[in-house]
Amino acid sequence: MYSHRIVLHFPENVVEDPLICRLARRYDVQFSVLRAEIEENRGGMMVLGLTGDNGVVRDALEFLEGHGVEIEPLQQDIRIDADTCTHCGACVGQCPTGALFVEERDRTVALDSEKCIACQQCVPACPYQAIQVSFH
Ligand code: SF4
Ligand code: SF4
Predict the structure, then answer these.
(1) Which CATH number does the domain housing residue 13 bear?
(2) Which among 14, 41, 58, 108 has the fewest CB atoms less than 10 Å away?
């Protein structure tokens, strides 16, 4: 089994095409949509978790690329502004993966970026706008 988190960039001309539904019907892969948004006048963007046998995942990605979708590995950059963060912990309960947690030794809030899926649920939870998430 192969599990990967990827960023899909849909050109404007295929945004209306239900490619992900077609992919799910055609290939034996499990997927979860971690984030999706339309980029005005530029197409769309989707962060996808994809799991399946190696060859099937490769075929599924080739199917998307064959329809003009650009694919790149997910590289998210989450930043907690150390000057602004008060370690209040409000973001920790909003994090679905445990990426944000309270350090036992000093009760400060910390981030395990390996667990972060860039869902951005923590961003509005912070009363001090101390968290930023970006993709690159
Ligand atoms: S972006 Fe999502 S997964 Fe990452 S730290 Fe924030 S809430 Fe947790
Ligand atoms: S909610 Fe904001 S201020 Fe509170 S611990 Fe999280 S990042 Fe820091």
Answers:
(1) 3.30.70.260
(2) 41
Tell whether ligand 2 has an atom less than 6 A from the beta carbon of residue 130. yes
**Ligand 2 geometric centre to CA of 82 (Å):** 9
Q: Comparing 36 with 17, which gets the higher pLDDT? A: 36
Q: Give, using CA atoms, the residue closest to atom 3 of ligand 1.
A: 116
Q: What does the alpha-carbon distance between residue 45 and residue 55 come to, in Å, rounded to a whole number?
A: 24
Per-residue confidence (pLDDT) for residue 1, from 0 to 100: 58
CA angle 38, 90, 117 (to 5 degrees): 40
Residue at a domain's end among 19, 51, 73? 73
What does the pLDDT look like over 38-65, one tens digit per residue?
A: 766 678 888 888 888 989 999 999 999 9
Q: 120: domain range?
A: 76-135
Q: What is the pTM of this model?
A: 0.63
Task: Tell me the chain's radius of gyration from C-alpha atoms.
Answer: 17
